[in-house]
Amino acid sequence: MSQPLPPHPLSVPQSAAQAIFGKGVKDHRLDLDRHLNEAKIFHGHICGGIVIGVRMALLGLDLLGIREPKGPEGKDLLVFVEIDRCATDAITSVTGCRPGRRSMKLKDYGRMAATFLRISTGEAWRISTLDRPDPAESPESVLARLRTISDRDLLKAIPVKVALDPGDLPGRPIRAVACTRCEEMILDARDVAGPDGPMCRPCASGTAYYEILDRAEA
Ligand SMILES: [Zn+2]
Ligand SMILES: [Zn+2]
User: Counting ligands in written order, which one lies closest to the CA of residue 190?
Assistant: First the structure.
């Protein structure tokens, strides 16, 4: 199951890195402008985050050797994104991965980074950006620079291991139970043990992102 990982693409000479990036498959970077256009339509505008996100996704696919992420081999792809901003839309546009298909997980760390994982082998690459925005640079200059800069200068890719839970995977829910307090259904083994049986996490912890308002007085 565990295959030896290829050498770190950004720690080897560029000529060798080229071979690793492509692994003998189609070089996605040749399609950069097409993907940028599609991401622009999906996102509503073109911006630095879109360019970086598209390039992250193309590099991630290359490293995993996935050519057609929107075809059948895309079922083997899982993406973890670490920011809920433009780059995430770009990654969705290129890969087709999205939360509603359980193929994209949002870890809201506020970092422009994403991990691309091949489910069947566990091979995973975390890609972050080396770009540091300069407020004095014009938007046009930013876009032109981000589009043409080399992968080596724009992105950092490291092999990682991701602890995957069966409840994280796409497909039918592995578990569905009702919360013993709020009585709402909890899917995908997200329940925790309570004194009277399974509970949803907000009920178990007593904390939620919302506060229930008393409508009786309204
Ligand atoms: Zn944007
Ligand atoms: Zn509950």
Answer: 2
Ligand nearest to the CA of 47: 1
CA distance 136 to 148: 19
Contacts with 76 (C-beta within 8 Å, 6 or more apart), sequence order: 66, 118, 119, 120
Mean pLDDT (the chain) is 88
Residues 6 or more apart whose CB falls under 8 angstroms from that of 192 comprise 198, 199, 200, 201, 204
For residue 75, what is the DSSP state?
G
- CATH code, domain with 34: 3.30.1330.130
Q: Which ligand gives the minimal distance to the CA of 201?
A: 2
What is the whole-number distance in angstroms between the Cα of residue 191 and the centre of ligand 2? 9
* Ligand 2 centre distance from Cα of residue 153 (Å): 48
Is 144 part of a structural domain of the chain? yes
The tens digit of pLDDT for each residue in 103-127 reads 999 999 999 999 999 999 999 999 9
In a domain, 91, yes or no: yes
27 φ, ψ (degrees, to nearest 5): -85, 105
Say what the pTM is: 0.83
Q: If pLDDT is split at 50, 70 and 90, which confidence band does 7 have?
A: very low
Q: Has residue 111 been placed in a domain?
A: yes
So what's the pLDDT on residue 54?
A: 97
Neighbours of ion ligand 1 (CB under 5 A): 47, 49, 86
**Neighbouring residues of 212: CB distance < 8 A, sequence distance ≥ 6:** none
How many C-beta neighbours within 10 Å does residue 151 have?
Answer: 21
Count the residues in the chain.
Answer: 218
